[in-house]
Amino acid sequence: MNQIETRWAGVWAIVGAGVVASLQVGKVIIAAPLLRQDMGLDLASIGTLTAVFSVLGVVGGIAAGGVIARFGARRMLLLGLSATALGTAMGAIAPSYALLLASRVVEGLGFLMITVAGPAALQRLVSASGRDFAFALWSCYMPTGMAIAMLASQAFDHWQAVWWCAGVAVIVSLASVAALLPSGHAARAPLSWRGMRQDTVDTLSAAGPVLLALSFTLYSLMFFALFTFLPVLLMDQLGLTLAQAGLYSAIASAANIVGNLGAGVLLARGWRRSTLIACASVTMGVVALLIFRSVLPAMPTFLLCVLFSAVGGLIPATLLGTAPLVAPRPALTAASVGLVMQGSNLGQVIGPVTVGGVIDRYGWGAASTIVLAAGLGGVLIAAALRRVRAARL
């Protein structure tokens, strides 16, 4: 019994690491109005602050999976949290936009290690019967961290204070992971460029991981196209104050948790994974048309944001739970998860930068076309997933 309690304590520590990693995403989103006021940044620059955070993840997901498989997920989690803490401190004292941008790259390295090592660590901590619940919890890390960041914004008048508090949360998580995750896992094999190259080739040659990565790219593009600028949208289009925009954005972000957990329930009841992805993708695309074009009054528009988030939550939970099923071989589970997270990071790069520039140049309504196109692309990828030979795809 004591061993089981220790195992689940470790699961919560891993989920907590994911949450504090996503705090670093949410802090920029809610601090966007303060950054615009203090540094005179436009929306494209704000989008870049969000996107550069994910640049390392775009190119390093599979490689991170290979490193984690050989050196251990616990060690990578600790290194990732340490890098995140360092980047957060650098950002808090940055006197210019250029240095703030550089600090986001350091935070991005930490985010990459945490988000790829997290699922690998969970695989070793939970039994088969507890696996689905553990991965459902893990898939909630992004909306939970973003919601916390947005709610916490009520207490701050300066963006630097947001950075320092986010850094304190990282230190707490670092201590929790060090204390609660078992150590002593030996490396499976020595690290070699030849081995990592072969892992990369084998993973990229498998249709399942590639399609999951593409699906995550489009989901992240849609989600961050809206949520990166949601507080600004609520203030500009709906006339809310910063405090109100933070509260409303937190509620909308938290709705994503409902979709994450709901995916686990629906999959347990026999829903096909491709069906969930297709339905959620098309719904997000259509709802985005109504949100960005502000065709409805303030409260209905906000409720559409909640719907967008809740339905969208079906996608990441489904993708993360599917990645181990489509890995070319068990030893490539971490690399497959890394490729899927690579797709997620790519969407986080493309979405904020593209949509921010489009809004600055053409207005809010033009952004809806990008999100709708991504939603339709998600439907096509879901159709392709049905032809992959894995359970209930």
If you had to describe this structure to a student in words, what would you say it looks like?
The structure is a single chain. This protein has 393 residues and is mainly alpha-helical. Helices cover 83% and strands 0% of the residues. The protein is built from 17 helices and no strands.
Features:
393 residues; mainly alpha; 17 helices; 0% strand; disordered N terminus
Largest sheet geometry: none
- End-to-end Cα distance, whole Å, is 36 Å
| H and E order | HHHHHHHHHHHHHHHHH
Query: Average pLDDT, to the nearest integer?
Result: 84
Task: Provide the structure class.
Answer: mainly alpha
Number of helices: 17
Shape: globular
Residue share in β-strands: under 5%
Question: Could you give the count of β-strands?
Answer: 0
Cα gyration radius (Å): 20 Å
Work out the oligomeric state of the chains in this entry.
Answer: single chain
Which spans have pLDDT < 50 for at least 5 consecutive residues?
Answer: 1-6
Q: Give helix % range.
A: over 70%
List the helices and strands and how they pair.
Blueprint lengths: L1 H38 L3 H10 L2 H17 L1 H20 L4 H29 L2 H11 L2 H12 L6 H22 L12 H12 L2 H21 L2 H9 L3 H27 L4 H20 L5 H15 L1 H13 L6 H30 L1 H22 L8
Q: What is this structure, in a nutshell?
A:
With 393 residues, this protein is mostly helical. It has helices at 2-39, 43-52, 55-71, 73-92, 97-125, 128-138, 141-152, 159-180, 193-204, 207-227, 230-238, 242-268, 273-292, 298-312, 314-326, 333-362, 364-385.
